[in-house]
Amino acid sequence: YLDKIVHFGLYFLLMFVIILEHRKSFQNTRILILISLIPIIFGAFIEVGQSGLTATRKGDVFDMFFNSAGVICATLLWLIIKPYKVY
User: Fold this and answer.
1) pTM of the full predicted structure?
2) What are the φ/ψ torsions at residue 5 (nearest 5 degrees)?
3) Which pick of 13, 19, 59, 64 has the fewest CB atoms within 10 Å?
4) CA–CA separation, 47 vs 75, rounded Å?
5) CA-atom Rg of the chain in angstroms
6) Rounded to whole angstroms, how far apart are CA atoms 56 and 70?
């Protein structure tokens, strides 16, 4: 299951970098949630592309799940620590 942990960690870091780079432009939580859909949709496209467009790789539903879980955890962590003005 190391592969799934790596998927979670990489998408967690990707979303956290997106949040840190654009933290001043988030006027409310709704915008942050909409922005978090970008890496989730990107990860889904990558997995679908792997299964449909390549012969050497295969897409995995669990990879999509762990990609999304990493993005969601990063978003929730930001929403928890944001009131403390840690940035």
Assistant:
1) 0.89
2) -65, -40
3) 13
4) 22
5) 14
6) 26
